[in-house]
Automatic annotation (TrEMBL):
This is C2orf54 isoform 4. It comes from Pan troglodytes (Chimpanzee).
Amino acid sequence: MPAPALPTSAMAVQVPLWHHYLQAIRSREAPRAQDFQRAENVLLTVLERVHALDPRFIVDYSRGLEAFQFALRSSEDPMDMEVPLWVDAEALLIEEPEATQPEDGLELCHLGVPREGAGLERWTTEDTFTASS
């Protein structure tokens, strides 16, 4: 009885294509998690610094957090982030226009943030910072 033939390179077991994709994803998983953590740290540092510089601005950490996390995990390109800041309602100015009311009967007013406030200073170039500071 002849000995079984050894498989040649043409007969070698083929690894499914999805296996290669899975290996690629796993090899990038740890660096992506580190990138995500760094981006989150930078964002929170910036937002906390903004609030410390001017307490009229209140950070909304909850809005779109899942979408933000997904974008960080799935994006390979630099991405822009829109960060919602609330303004303390007590700090708002309400200005009623001096003109007559519009024909549709709606009353209009303008909302603004005062330039000066008790215990608040204007932002200057010294207030500019990087997230690493």
